[in-house]
Amino acid sequence: MTLPKIPLAGVIGHPIAQSKSPQVHGHWLRTFGIKGHYIPMDVNPSDLKKVIKALPKMGFVGVNVTIPHKERVMDLVHQVTDRATLIGAVNTLIIREDGKIIGDNTDGYGFIENLRQAAPNWQAADGPAVILGAGGAARAVIASLLDAGVPEILISNRTRVRAETLREEFGTRLTVVDWFQAGNAIEGGATIVNTTSLGMAGKPDLRVPLDGLKPSAVVTDLVYNPLETQLLAAAKDVGCTTVDGLGMLLHQAVPGFERWFGTRPTVDDATRQAALK
Ligand code: NAP
């Protein structure tokens, strides 16, 4: 009798000990009684090519890829999806039975799904979105908001040229606003997103003036440590609906788990608790 293969998945990064993905996928594997494993893998950049090549032979059905490998891995896979190409980074690899590796990006999906779950009345058409920051995470947020149908995005970043580059790539629905005028942009925003690392434990707070923030705005922060950033606390005081960043991390994991293990997980309170352990 041949025993069925045990599907393996995991996350590749450097460092990797801080990743919450093993707790999340481990929780789902246990919840559904799937005999698979999801492991953290600390891979040095100089070993990345060899490691990716070996995955199909080792029984991996897929992996997540995180900092600092998200861009470089695009050249190491057989195919990259359109949305990963648009975002310019890959965070999920799917390994087919024939050994071919597909690179996808589920960060934008995770961002929108989190917004929809935590702010069910949110509509892309409600008005302009204001994005603070222009790093890697901002790219996924922009791609998903444009795809969802926001009429306009005002983007503001400390280093203005990075925001201008995104304007050139993503097109005319984007307007670049000077960092010192970010407070003015917020006045007209229906959706406010912090994609900078400001507000994270150990970093300074985001000090953008919120005087003009409308109570009808939905405010979300990609930072999830702490869960309630100073931005979210201030927005809550104004009466805004606020959405923390942990949900994005959880929702971006859903498409990978479903492809690898054949069951679509739901993001519920037990999933959040598993990530916070
Ligand atoms: P990144 O590419 O390094 O970009 C960092 C951004 O923060 C840039 O816009 C940078 O502005 C800005 N920034 C950093 N320090 C600043 C300061 N002192 N003053 C003003 N702006 C500052 O990082 P990333 O990958 O985009 O990640 C950004 C944040 O999102 C991180 O906190 C990350 O943990 C979080 N994130 C969360 C999720 C999730 O699932 N919730 C997913 C991805 C990322 P400059 O261009 O001027 O340097």
Q: What would you say this structure looks like, in words?
A:
The chain is an alpha/beta fold and 277 residues long. The chain has 2 domains: 8-105, Rossmann fold; 108-247, Rossmann fold (3-Layer(aba) Sandwich), CATH 3.40.50.720. 35% of the residues lie in helices and 18% in strands. It has 11 helices and 12 strands. It has helices at residues 21-32, 48-54, 82-87, 107-118, 136-148, 160-170, 182-187, 230-238, 246-251, 254-261, 269-276; strands at 8-13, 37-42, 60-65, 79-80, 92-95, 101-104, 129-132, 153-156, 174-177, 191-194, 218-221, 241-243. It has a 6-stranded mixed sheet with strand order 2-1-3-5-6-4. Strands 9-8-7-10-11-12 form a 6-stranded parallel sheet, with helices on both faces. Strand 7 (129-132), helix 5 and strand 8 (153-156) form a beta-alpha-beta unit. Helix 1 (21-32) packs across helix 11 (269-276). It is globular and about 70 Å long. The N and C termini lie far apart (40 Å). The mean pLDDT is 96. The protein binds NADP nicotinamide-adenine-dinucleotide phosphate (NAP).
Secondary structure layout:
Elements lengths: L7 E6 L7 H12 L4 E6 L5 H7 L5 E6 L13 E2 L1 H6 L4 E4 L5 E4 L2 H12 L10 E4 L3 H13 L4 E4 L3 H11 L3 E4 L4 H6 L3 E4 L23 E4 L8 H9 L2 E3 L2 H6 L2 H8 L7 H8 L1
Parallel strand pairs: 1-2, 1-3, 4-6, 7-8, 7-10, 8-9, 10-11, 11-12
Antiparallel strand pairs: 3-5, 5-6
Helix pairs in contact: 1-11, 4-5
